[in-house]
């Protein structure tokens, strides 16, 4: 399989890209931080491509996808794992934060998909987009307005591509609480949080049953995602979440 993983310099994206490479697939890793990409490519195995890509820039997305398609000899699968989750009271989410969140979580996915679409149509391929239970299966968590709204928009974007291009498989992969892997594979999702505010809202997440303390083993996500990418049928949505404590 010839796969492109977007957002592959750290966290779940890196774990996915490395896992596919170790399974013997031809992989192109895309993200902004080249040094981290090069390191991840070495971990994934010989022949893995490290390609700089800023998902908020249309020209960068187009150039990166074309470089990946040329280097891989086509594209069978795209995984969009790039995403940010600012933590803030909804009334304090400013215009810059709204734009940055949508640029990364939604517009970037649209730009990457549009660039990859001719290659995916040629191969009858698949595209998978990481979402979250906090945006898809529960009410909006306090503090996560920008994230939840953007992921709801991403869901509709995936539906739009699926409706207009039924010859490509488009899948939403909803992921429960997962810390990623070790070292650079660890999730950077909370890196920019205001921890004083996080301490105030986390008890609400727990009391409402949104967060139980259980974490999904990243290997479980990798196994499910691998099945999604290799399935030639239609999987509109799949959810992977940790088992709840007894």
- Count all strands and give the number: 7
Given as residue ranges, the uncertain stretches (5+ residues, pLDDT < 50) are none
Q: Give the helix proportion (percent range).
A: 40-55%
The largest pleated sheet is described as:
7 strands, parallel
The general outline is globular
Structural class: alpha/beta
The number of helical runs is 8
Residue-averaged pLDDT: 94
Measured distance between first and last alpha carbons: 39 Å
Strand order of the largest sheet: 3-2-1-4-5-6-7
Determine the strand fraction and express it as a percent band: 15-25%
Order of helices and strands: EHEHEHEHEHHEHHE
Describe the structure.
By secondary structure, this protein is of the alpha/beta class. Helices cover 48% and strands 15% of the residues. It contains 8 helices and 7 strands; from the N terminus they run βαβαβαβαβααβααβ. α2 links the parallel β2 and β3. It is globular, with a radius of gyration of 17 Å. The termini are far apart. The model has no long low-confidence stretch (mean pLDDT 94).
Keyphrases for this structure?
15% strand; 246 residues; alpha/beta; single chain; 8 helices
Summarize the structure.
With 246 residues, the chain is α/β, with parallel strands linked by helices. Helices cover 48% and strands 15% of the residues.
Strand and helix map with partners:
Layout: E1 2-6, H1 11-22, E2 26-31, H2 34-44, E3 49-52, H3 58-72, E4 77-80, H4 95-123, E5 126-132, H5 133-136, H6 145-164, E6 169-175, H7 195-207, H8 218-230, E7 237-240
Parallel strand pairs: 1-2, 1-4, 2-3, 4-5, 5-6, 6-7
Helix pairs in contact: 1-2, 1-8, 3-4, 4-6
